[in-house]
Amino acid sequence: MSVLLCLLAVWAVYAIATNPRFQWDVVGQYMFDHRILHGLGMTLLLTVESSAIGVALGVIIAIMRLSPIPVLSVPAWLFAVFFRGTPLLVQIIFWYNLAALYPSLSIGIPGLAPFFHANANQLISPLTAGLLALGLNEGAYMSEIIRAGIIGVDRGQTEAGKALGMRPQRVLRRIVLPQAMRIIIPPMGNEIIGLLKGTSLVSVISVSELLFSAQIIYSQNLETIPLLIVASIWYLAATTVMSVGQYHLERHFGRGTGHPAPGFLEVWRNALTQAHARIRPTERVSS
User: Fold this and answer.
1) 235-279 confidence digits (pLDDT tens)
2) Cα of 246 vs its chain's centroid, Å
3) C-alpha–C-alpha distance, residues 178 and 191, integer Å
4) Which of 32, 55, 57, 262 has a Cα at 20 to 30 A from 15?
5) 177-198 vs 126-151: helix crossing angle, rounded to 10
6) b/e for 32-60, b at 16 or more Cβ within 10 A?
7) What is the Cα–Cα distance from 210 to 262, expressed in whole angstroms?
């Protein structure tokens, strides 16, 4: 079965590589085009900034959700319900058109001069709208991931910290969160990888990320498929690097469990050993 799957994989790669309709020469021509690289940089920037907003906001919302005080827990629950319950694309378009609802934004005490006043059209640029939508949406999902991680830590750990005279904030920071990271890291990594791909949605408001850059080029030269392949290759490369980082984070935080994840070399060594063990009996039978 393994040999059959390998043969099918080799056949699929050969069929794709030798199909002239994929226009691999055009793919190679635009692979390192400055417009594509600029779009890739914008995609990575949006991913980093949005994930930073999401993680910071997620921690706050998760702690509020776990609070016994309704004034804190109810707004946090409503926040998570709203931003998880509406499509990300709708949120992006909504933030982009915020000026239709509030032409000007002001912060201050009623009856007095505002502390802050700005034109919404100038303040909410396409990049800002995309960053707000991605960051807030990510914060809602991160809050549930972080909350699940905190709940997954045995309550006896919290009680032991309090028995030692530690304040609740210190217990959370020094005892609960480090243990919760083993639960949090895998889904958080998947969420950030999904966020990287989700940045392609901001192309609808003309943010020059990777997909939008590819669209601009193929709208001029009509080479749609090769440019989409270029974008896909860069997305795949970025998500692969992030997956490797996630793997090593899981390995780092899993050291105290007694079952740390094996290293990449160990994984490949085990796979080759198993493949060799399957092949050798076949060779003996044939001989």
Assistant:
1) 999 999 999 888 888 887 776 555 555 555 565 566 556 656 665
2) 11
3) 19
4) 32
5) 150
6) eeeebeebbebbbebbeebbebbbebbbb
7) 34
- Looking at the domain assignment, is residue 238 inside a domain? yes
User: Can you give the CATH number for the domain in which 175 is found?
Assistant: 1.10.3720.10
Pick the closest to residue 172 from 62, 36, 78, 265 (CA basis): 62
Where does the chain show beta strands of DSSP type E?
104-107, 116-119
Q: Are 46 and 199 in contact (CB under 8 A)?
A: yes
Q: Is residue 134 part of a domain?
A: yes
Angstrom CA distances, 57 to 8, 114, 158, 214, stand at: 46, 26, 23, 32
As a whole number of angstroms, the distance between CA 238 and CA 210 comes to 11
Q: 190: domain range?
A: 24-107+115-278
Q: How far apart are CA 150 and CA 178, in angstroms?
A: 10
Q: What is the largest CA-CA distance in the chain?
A: 95
Q: How far apart are CA 135 and CA 137, in angstroms?
A: 6
Q: Evaluate whether residue 284 is within a structural domain.
A: no
Per residue in 12-24, pLDDT (tens digit) is 888 888 888 888 8
Rg of the Cα atoms in the chain: 25
Number of domains in the chain: 1
Note the pTM of the prediction, 2 decimals.
Answer: 0.82
